[in-house]
Design brief:
Helix 5 (about 145-160) links the parallel strand 7 (about 135) and strand 8. Strands 4-3-5-6-7-8 form a 6-stranded parallel β-sheet. A two-stranded antiparallel sheet has the order 1-2. By secondary structure, it is α/β, with parallel strands linked by helices. The chain has helices at about 15-35, 45-55, 85-95, 110-115, 145-160, and strands at about 5, 10, 35-40, 65, 75-80, 105, 135, 170. The structure holds iron/sulfur cluster. Iron/sulfur cluster binds near residues 81, 109, 115 and 140.
């Protein structure tokens, strides 16, 4: 059998496996990117915009994303708001309870870097200090459209994933 897969020319018997894996990757990624369940982790004012993103005007469900109150079944977590050290421990716990593959969107300046409160004794200057972040959405607060674009960026990242190689560099969203 010969043909051309996502990894270039396919020739030998060993390459047939590569060809099929590439096609399977695309199929699995297509299903996963359009059925993302998100764990809400609203911590401050950004949480209101997060709620609004799930409302009828922004309607993030158009992209196949629905909220899930349990980390056990969630595909990704949206951290929205000011993360104190006290809550950082909870964020880490919830992240650890999520099953792989799992992703994180950091929403707003406070979650990205501490924002207005980054010099406060009690504030963690970025959720990426405790858990890995896949997409950063800037703003104070980001509008629902910005968070929606963050979701689309996450979908694009999932679309590119290859078998056994998941984690890539985090991506950003335009301000
Ligand atoms: S980034 Fe701005 S809107 Fe969001 S939690 Fe911080 S202060 Fe509030």
């Amino acid at each position: 059998m010969s043909g051309t897969g996502g990894h270039g020319e396919v020739g030998g018997a060993g390459d047939v496996t590569l060809f099929h894996t590439s096609q399977l990757d695309e199929l699995i990624n297509l299903a996963r990117q359009n059925s993302l369940w998100y764990l809400l982790f609203g911590l401050a004012c950004c949480g209101i915009e997060l709620i609004q993103t799930g409302g009828p005007r922004a309607d993030v469900m158009r992209f196949g994303a629905i909220p899930r109150a349990s980390p056990r079944q969630a595909d990704f977590m949206i951290v929205a708001g000011t993360l104190t050290y006290k809550m950082a421990l909870r964020a880490k716990l919830l992240y650890d309870q999520m099953s792989e593959p799992k992703y994180v969107i950091s929403m707003g300046s406070c979650a990205n870097c501490g924002g207005l409160f980054q010099l406060a004794y009690s504030v963690c200057d970025g959720v990426d200090k405790v858990i890995p972040v896949d997409v950063y959405v800037p703003g104070c607060p980001p509008r629902p459209e910005a968070l929606t674009e963050g979701l689309v960026k996450l979908q694009e990242k999932i679309q590119q994933e290859k078998w056994l190689v998941r984690k890539t560099e985090p991506v950003g969203v335009r301000a």
